[in-house]
Amino acid sequence: MQGPLKEIVMGLHKDVAYRLELARGFLNEAEQDCSLKRWRACVSGSILVLENSGLAVLMLFGVSPLTHKPARHLSQLMMEGTVTKEVAALIEEILPELEKYDSHEKMLAKYGNESSYQLPWELFNEEEALAAIEAARKSMRISAELAELLQATDTPLLD
Asked: If you average pLDDT over every residue of the chain, what do you get?
């Protein structure tokens, strides 16, 4: 690969690597928050892991990183049937988590439930924090695996 295409692919790798590093940093913070029993902060950090790792996966397919709903776009990609079976299976593993922790959960973690006057710290407990951080770990693992598949020259992501 040479010329402009190589530059695009190299830029894509940098963008994906950046998103994965963001996700890794938020995961480290979420782990610390969990150990300190800061449940809301753990959920919030986990949501940021999910969002950034989901965006990294989208970017592997050339989708703009400006979206904040990676689940919607990954579902669309799956419906188009253009990804390999291996890639589809991996995406299917993380879709439920990406859908669960969408922008609504993010808003609750930031602002609470304004209609019932519940503060964010009242909404999240240990069980919810542990579920969120497990989802974040899973998304981080799968997004890194998908990024590795892209870098393997003999493994195309698209059919």
From this structure: 86
Q: How far apart are CA 66 and CA 59, in angstroms?
A: 10
CA atoms of 34 and 32, how far apart (whole Å): 5
Burial label, 99 (beta-carbon count in 10 A; 0-12, 13-18, 19+): middle
Q: State the total domains in the chain.
A: 1
Q: Is residue 156 part of a domain?
A: no
What's the pTM value of the predicted model, to 2 decimals?
Answer: 0.85
CB 146 within 8 A of CB 87: yes
Identify whether the C-beta of residue 132 lies closer than 8 Å to the C-beta of residue 29: no
CA nearest 43: which of 128, 145, 138, 104?
128
Domain-located, residue 56? yes
Orientation angle between helical segments 85-100 and 126-151, nearest 10 degrees = 150
Separation of alpha carbons 121 and 5, rounded Å:
48
Tokens at residue 67, please?
């979206």
